[in-house]
Design brief:
The chain is built from ten helices and ten strands. The protein is α/β, with parallel strands linked by helices. α1 crosses α10.
């Protein structure tokens, strides 16, 4: 069974839970990972049977629209949403929403680079819009796409030095399992709201997956806290192997 996931660690973590059920029903797993647009294109072309997972409707709905009739939504694994966050030592009474980035003390202390992940991610699209629509660029703020390591590493380095930094992130994610990250209010509503992380399968693969496996998959709900925990466990395991 060909199981695909977007090439981010928390998608990998939740994909392993889906694969565990498929294996229990006798399937051999061929796993693959790719950036957002490429993974949805693989599913459109029939190169993967199962995709873990589509954030619908806001973040990934546009990628799915052209072939939505070819897939079946099996279950909602968790309820993700995007945030702009700051470390909890940044005072909430002075930096509570995005507009506060344009006022003291944030104007004096907040770093202007907002480091993101790959450009196909919903949070990347939303963040670019936030910089423009809130007029943050006029104050020198700028959003830059990059790798997970660049995004997360910048945040962890900043926390180690207690620097003020904005983190474009989402729930669930392993950083929430290790750090206290406070969400900034988004009065303009540009962060997309809460999505449904939906396990989707190609309709032409349903018979091969089997009714029993689909039924069990249909009961699978992990929730944001569990996915963040699974993501953190995966990060620690990968670090252990690298060491």
């Amino acid at each position: 069974m060909r199981v695909g996931h977007i090439d981010l660690s928390f998608h990998d973590a939740s994909a392993r839970e889906v694969e565990r059920i498929l294996i229990a029903h006798g399937h051999r797993i061929e796993r693959s990972a790719a950036p957002h647009e490429e993974m949805f294109e693989r599913m459109r072309r029939g190169k993967v049977d199962v995709l873990v997972s589509a954030w619908l409707p806001a973040s990934h709905g546009g990628y799915l629209a052209s072939f939505a009739d070819d897939v079946r939504a099996v279950t909602v694994l968790y309820e993700p949403y995007c945030i702009w966050g700051v470390p909890d030592y940044v005072p909430a009474e002075t930096v509570g929403e995005i507009t506060d980035l344009l006022r003291p003390p944030a104007l004096q202390r907040m770093e202007r680079l907002i480091q993101g992940i790959n450009p196909g991610a919903g949070i990347s699209r939303f963040s670019a819009a936030i910089v423009a629509r809130y007029g943050l660029d006029a104050a020198g703020y700028h959003f830059r796409t990059g790798t997970q390591a660049q995004c997360f590493g910048r945040f962890t380095d900043a926390v180690a030095d207690r620097r003020w930094v904005v983190l474009p992130l989402w729930q669930p994610q392993w950083l929430h399992h290790r750090y206290r990250i406070r969400e900034l209010a988004d009065p303009k509503g540009l962060l997309g709201g809460t999505d449904h992380a939906t396990l989707i399968v190609r309709r032409d693969a349903e018979q091969r997956i089997g009714a029993a496996a689909l039924e069990e998959l249909g009961t699978l709900h992990l929730g944001n806290t569990r996915v963040s925990e699974l993501d953190d466990l995966l990060q620690r395991a990968e670090s252990g192997r690298a060491g």
